[in-house]
Amino acid sequence: MKNRARNPRSRPGRRSGAPRRDPLIGVEVDVKIADIGARGDGLAETTAIGGKSVLVYVDGVLPGDEVRVKLRQKRGDGYGAEVVAVQKRPKDHAAAKCSHYDQCGGCSLQHLPDEDYRIWKRHRAVQAVMRAGISDAGAAENMVAALETSPPASRRRADFSVICTQDGVFVGFTERFSHHIVNVSDCAVLLPAIVDFRNQCQAFLESLPRETVAIIRNVVVNAADNGLDVMIGATHEPNLDLRQGLAELADHVDLARLAWKVGDHAAEPVAQRRTPEVRFADVPVFVPSGGFLQATKQGETALTNAIASALSRIPARQVIDLFCGIGSFTFPLALTGDRRRVMAVEGDIAAVRAMQYAVGRASAPIEVVHRDLFRQPLDAEALKDADVVVFDPPRAGALAQCEILANFGPEWILAVSCNPATFARDMRLLRNGGYELQQVVPVDQFLWSPHLEMFAVLRRTLPAAA
Asked: How much is the pLDDT for 2?
């Protein structure tokens, strides 16, 4: 046996014991809910050992509720908790819109009365503006427009988790405070066609051997303009019997396409009755399997209208559309109102190919560029001829690109964000570079959840770097 060098400062023979259990976990305390937090849960305070005040996050409550809660787990600088008894409820809770609301983690705010919900959601945008550096609460309030809200039963994309256990097959969303999957046989936010497919998909999976279902991890559904586009994520390729069953399922429910995806490999169509497509500015664009669409058609329209309204006041001829996806904003930018030349930049190669094909068919004044903007943001040279930059990044935001835009960006920036936290960070960076934040439009595509889309208009007031 080879001799191994020992650390002379180590203490041989000493084993590390199990980590100490937090003494507050499992403790019941009485709290009064002070506010609704950024994740949609109630905020309260309790006293930890040593007299220090700590935050408690409570699900399904309203400000003013007095409840007895049980601390369940450490969460950041506080504790997540569940209600064990309601002591006082000064305001009635709204009735749940969905039979799964008590369990499903997809929605967290159905108990909030409608007007309170709208006020809270818009206030999230005001808070994000203030975190961006607008310290005057009145100025931030005046900057934020009225909330644009999508109606119930309008969500056109869903990512269902799938698990097979001794208790059966589960196709749905994660339960609150756990990794368990809730079978969502009805849903108040999804399009009825997606819910109907989910139910038929579950019935199909229940007819299969358990070992076959066990390889399936999720089912992604997009509602294209000409039918549902379904992509099944799995750990292994389907066998011949499963392929035949999937083709029969696709035919029975009239899917536009059903594809199978293993790990990071490209999705493979199993059955395709027609190519899924959506229309932007009346241009048909093919949707890649599992591709990104704005969550609701109404939300997409609200954002497109906000961009068009801003551009009506801006004399722009050359526009750069960053993180363009398959062109939900690109085609309206180029083909509605004053015609403009648009450079559309996207990192997903499937989206780029779909865009290039659509641009060719429409003969649109659009140049499509494949580029990873997280690793290779556009530089000063690429930005120099732009009149306006539009960007709509994922939830992580556009930090690297905003660092360059702050120094070398054009006079106008139109920003879309699906995360108030990264929105505030990116807006602060642009403001520090000489931009003025002029207007913010909050768009609620994720009804009864804490998620919020935001559109912002910025104009440079200080010269760009030389």
From this structure: 42
Largest CA distance in the chain: 79
CA–CA distance, 462 with 9 (Å, rounded to integer): 57
Residues 309, 451, single domain; the answer is yes
Q: Are residues 243 and 300 in the same domain?
A: no
Let me know if residue 203 belongs to a domain: yes
Note the pTM of the prediction, 2 decimals. Answer: 0.91
Which residue(s) pair with 286 in the sheet?
A: 277
3-state class of 86 per DSSP? strand
Domain assignment of residue 434, yes or no: yes
Residues 145 and 273 in one domain: no
**What's the CATH number where 228 sits?**
2.40.50.1070
The residues of the chain scoring below 70 in pLDDT are 1-20, 177, 466
Q: How far is CA 300 from the centre of its chain?
A: 14
Report yes or no: 389 and 407 within 8 Å, Cβ to Cβ: no
Judge whether 285 lies within some domain. no
464 DSSP assignment: P
**Rounded Cα distance, 318 and 98, in Å:** 47
Q: Which residue has the tokens 């403009």?
A: 340
Which of 16, 14, 9, 44 lies closest to 30, judged by CA?
Answer: 44
Compute the distance between CA of residue 363 and CA of residue 328 in angstroms, rounded to an integer. Answer: 17
In DSSP notation, 37-67 reads: -TTS-EEEEEE-TTS-EEEEEETT--TT-EE
Place of tokens 């644009």: 148
For residue 224, which phi and psi values (nearest 5 degrees)? -75, 175
Number of domains within the chain: 3
Distance CA 190, CA 272 (A): 23
37 HSE (CA, 13 A, CB side)? 16
Q: In this structure, is residue 112 part of a structural domain?
A: no
Residue 339: per-residue pLDDT: 80
**How far is residue 368's CA from residue 285's CA, in Å, rounded to a whole number?**
14
Strand partners, 259: 231, 269
**Cα 233 from Cα 220, distance rounded (Å):** 8
Catalytic residue ranges: 418
CATH, residue 41: 2.40.50.140
According to DSSP, the β-strands at 341-346 and 66-75 are unpaired
Asked if residues 452 and 446 have their Cβ atoms less than 8 Å apart, the reply is yes
pLDDT of res. 18: 55
